[in-house]
Amino acid sequence: MKTLVSGGTVVLENGTCAADVLIGANGTIECVASPGSVAGADEEIDARGLLVFPGMIDGHSHLNDPGNTESEDFYTGTCGAAGGGMTTVLEMPQTIPLVDTLEAFVEKRGIAETKAVVDYGLWGALTIESVSDESAMGAMVSEGAIGFKAFTTDSPEILLIPDNLLRTGLARAAELGVPVGVHCEDQEIITYETARLKKLGRNDPLVNPDSRPPVAEIEAVRRVLLLAEMTGARVHLAHISLPESVELAREAKNRGVAVTVETCGHYFEFTREDTGRIGAYAMCNPPLREAAACAGMWRLLASGAIDTIGSDHSTYTEEEKGTTDFWAMPAGISGIQLLFPFVVGEAIRRGIDPSLLGRMFSANVARVFGLYPRKGVIQPGSDADLTLVEPGAEWVVRSSDLFTKCPGTPYEGHVIRSRVRRTIVRGTTVFLDDGSGPGRITAEPGFGQYLTAGKATASQARPGAGR
């Protein structure tokens, strides 16, 4: 069957236009045409009043499968993604077992094949073990790993990697043609601040931001940029929370460093004070910052200095988030279903061009991870991945309406000013909200396809260099 998406405003990389999109029987885009000029489609989707975005790509998700599926799995997590307009998720390696070997990578891919309702790719882990084994990274890339995740601080699943091994891993990733995503916080600073606050007897939600001050992120970003410059590697700075970090990356881009910057929706909306007010569901790493940082991140988004926006979706059970020991509180925010509609609604209210959002959520992500132009763009020959959004459609977040297993979220009760009406993956509707309720998943588990990355040169993978 051929499907015509008609009457909408199509979001292209360099602007928007009134156009119809014809989807071929093979699930790819056949043409983008003037309104009313295409005849002979077997099915027509009325997109009047809607923005037709290229399918959203979440470059940073934690679906906890395998190992911690009591809080999320590939089915529930990708249902949340579909409900939030995401047509592709790129899943992080912090599962059990940790994905730093070929065997763990293949096992995880097999699990996802039976559950995912949207397309997906997999990260590998850059650890002491995977760098010390000279064949491990290459073996994972040969199976399609889209990149490697590294930490400059300790996390529950991945310990920090020392600078000398990080440098080796970056050089190896450069040879393999894939990026390294880095969680940038300095462990020495965090260790010092943690000891200081514990000595004061602190045990409250604000120990999360207070033990991980801005200087911890900024110092680690400087160090990672230096190592990237020395090795020629492509680094993707994960979940950046501070305008100062974005500016450091912009300076490095202007020097020719192959760096891209990712941030998350919660760094635009929530503050350190919200951590104290909301508590467990607002605790994340890096932590929420002051209101001035949120305002600065919006300015940088509008300027194009931020390359991608990911959810960093990370859920925990009520029991895990219910501990009264805030030093032991697991850090993570549930946001995969809310990220895109929240950012779109707020950005449009602020006068930000939808095409900029389309690049940050789609084209730029696809370029960074070697998926472009199969993904990330509305043009003939690309996969017919489309996200249909009603701008200005206000709704109130209720966690009970979300698809994820553990939907507790700091967005609870928030008014969001845009609504995903339909999510289409390779020409097939996987989520539909016709206004009669919170929307429904229309795809079966296992519909999602596994994506392998194509090699990208440093220049191809540097969207927005110098902006």
What is the secondary structure topology, with strand pairs?
Layout: E1 3-12, E2 15-23, E3 29-33, E4 43-46, E5 51-54, E6 56-61, H1 74-83, E7 86-91, H2 102-113, E8 119-122, E9 124-125, H3 128-132, H4 136-142, E10 148-151, H5 163-176, E11 180-183, H6 187-199, H7 207-210, H8 214-231, E12 235-237, H9 243-254, E13 259-264, H10 266-269, H11 272-278, H12 291-303, E14 308-310, H13 318-321, H14 339-349, H15 354-368, E15 386-396, E16 415-425, E17 428-432, E18 440-441
Parallel strand pairs: 1-4, 1-5, 6-7, 7-8, 9-10, 10-11, 11-12, 12-13, 13-14
Antiparallel strand pairs: 1-2, 2-3, 5-15, 15-16, 16-17, 17-18
Helix pairs in contact: 5-8, 8-9
Radius of gyration: 21 Å
**Got a strand count?**
18
Structural class assignment: alpha/beta
CATH architecture identity of the domain at 55-368: Alpha-Beta Barrel
Strand content: 15-25%
CATH C-level class of the domain at 55-368 is Alpha Beta
